Amino acid sequence: MKVLVINCGSSSIKYELFDMDREDVLAKGLVERIGSDRSILTHRVTDREPWVETAEILDHRQGLNKVLALLVDRESGVLQSVEEVAAVGHRVVHGGESFSESVRIDADVVRAIQENVDLAPLHNPPNLSGIHAARHHLPHAEHVAVFDTAFHQTMPDYAYLYALPRVLYNKHKVRRYGFHGTSHQYVSQQAAALLEQPLETLKLISCHIGNGASCTAIQDGKSVDTSMGMTPLEGLMMGTRCGDIDPAIVPFVMAKEELTLGEVTSMMNKHSGLIGVSGLSSDMREIVEGTFEGNKQAKLALQMYTYRLRKTIGAYAASMDGVDAIIFTAGVGENASLVREWTCRALTYLGVELDKEKNAHLPRGPQVISTPESKVKVLVIPTDEELMIARETKRLVESAL
Ligand SMILES: Nc1ncnc2c1ncn2[C@@H]1O[C@H](COP(=O)(O)OP(=O)(O)O)[C@@H](O)[C@H]1O
Ligand SMILES: CC(=O)OP(=O)(O)O
Ligand SMILES: [Mg+2]
Asked: Pathway listed for it (predicted)?
């Protein structure tokens, strides 16, 4: 069964085509800067040079049309016809309380995703554009939605409620939802396999640190707490997002700087975090380089980033009354050894002992980077949200047969 996975951002489409009979990746790629006359399409097929094309791509429908054309093209293609795509798996960021599992997409599901737009104004509208475009171009295929929020629907109420008047939850569903659930779930399963222990017996803390960053406490294979909240702005310090701040700062800054609510929201989402503190970059590679070169602001940003991650790990060890393993994943977690080292260096009270050599010289694939004596294991596990979405899509399509 061939499954196409689509992850639509506000100005991008990430895609990956799988042959699910053997979980082979046939092709994958990225359309960037949608809405401009200089959109960039990068298309990769195993063992071939990548295709890079600049073109005017005005919306997601046009972008997806280009992708499908490349997939059936004589040179760049891997399919005879788009009819071969049996199913499409869509990443949907906010499922609200409506979805605790992946679902096959029908008119009711589209309506429910639409109803959650208010809760994720940056993420859900492009996700919906992707669904509309894919259903238009691939009407024969089954379409499945896999939600970032679904894995976190197991959190207890005392973890997901805010200490606000109850009416806000009753009327508007103001609560913690949590995100990156597909990734947290995937790496927790991989961790259990690596440790050769049943997932149901483990207390895990998973740190998904990429552009967006979140930390999740996982007990018995279930999410019991997570650092992102009603929106993906809460929690850890990120590339461009501030994470936790005193909420009273918002009206204070609005008054002092004469900013609108929209401007402060944009400041917190796009101009804060690593870029806001360092003034250098939102990219951890440049922050690490800057730190080595003696840039004080870059070093401060890195200290803040790792200090806050460490505090959250401590909090989740407390909330689960212990932890068996800490997992690092996503762009920063998988690649930045300095971030892992600084985060772990004051976790000795928990019994964490990092193997510095292993941490610095990491082979590919899932790895243990703690010493054999370490009471708490530290793991690096490459995430694969696309594979997880493809598996979910196949499972749902087959269960409907
Ligand atoms: N070698 C590296 N060292 C440090 N950071 C890295 C490295 N490679 C990638 N990153 C970081 O990973 C981030 C992207 O993570 P990723 O999980 O791909 O994000 P997203 O899926 O949210 O776009 C980049 O912004 C960069 O900061
Ligand atoms: C939910 C979220 O923050 O996603 P991303 O990390 O892809 O921005
Ligand atoms: Mg990501």
From this structure: Metabolic intermediate biosynthesis; acetyl-CoA biosynthesis; acetyl-CoA from acetate: step 1/2
